[in-house]
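Replication protein
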Amino acid sequence: LDTLSNISSEKSLLQAIPADWVFPTVNHDRVRQPLNAALESPDLSYVSKRGFYAPRTARRIRQCDVTYGALHAWEDGARWMVLPLTCNSVACPLCARLKSIDRARRAARIAGLDHASLRWMTFTIENPPPGRLVDSMDRMGQAFRFLRHNKSGEAWARHVRGSLWAFEVTHNVRADTWHPHYHVLFDGLYWPRAALLDAWQARCRRQGLVGSVYIGRAHNRGRPIESVKDKLAAVIEVTKYTVKPLSEGSFKPNRIAELLDALYRRRTHGSAGSLALLRDPETPVAWKWIAPLSRFDNALADEPGRRYIIDGIMASLEDKPLLKLSLLRSSQMVHDHTPPPEFG
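Tokens:
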């Protein structure tokens, strides 16, 4: 919700409305405007290698979270729901945050976390220059897959019972180079750095890369792991990684386009074994799509059932005051829903 930026305590916000209705948009517009400007810049000359199309992405991000969708329950005619319409783009700061929240929510359900022995690893390669990011990420991904899937040895299986990984790319503005790397949190046995480095460099050499690796004990923001809560914090830390250059203010058109092209339709997170993230159970479809909420904004529109839909939506928001406030602020439904005062 837009009102999140005006709440001093996020805890009070979560107490006010259910967590499912919290959609942080604090930094969305601040990042979205320069990002769209870069993607639509006349100086953009980057040629896509993976099918990324900058104007389409800019259009999707511009339209993200500007309106809501209205849904109606199939069985219970008194139940309505409104949700923000998001773009699901890897470049969108809001959608990246929502995906991180979803992964963190699923991570909280990992079974046996209290018995896990957690350590972290970071796999890197020599920083590629501009124009080489896509190729470097392709080859680095191959090396990482071979290391995990035992296609060229059993080093991983001997040490790792379960793992949670995230791929991240940062941009060194001063040197103008890319820094792709994998963050890995794993449950398993002690793995000497020299042996781990040999295993990683062997996979990298087969891909024509120069690799390096770092390993250490998992921690909770610098504090040692002492409880299950600390372990969960370490797990959630891995789930939150997003596209760093977009949050650091680096909006050079060709660099942004190359980054988004390299990430286009590429898997950036994964889990396995004892740290596998559980999937939500499939449930029967309970909601049917009605229309974007903007369809009902115009007070002059006189469509069949319009009054029924608006009244149903408003009734469903009585116990969600912050969401209702956000809707009424951004929609003209408030003029239609609120009757004129009676005089006399």
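Residues 1-26, 334-344 have pLDDT under 50 and may be disordered.
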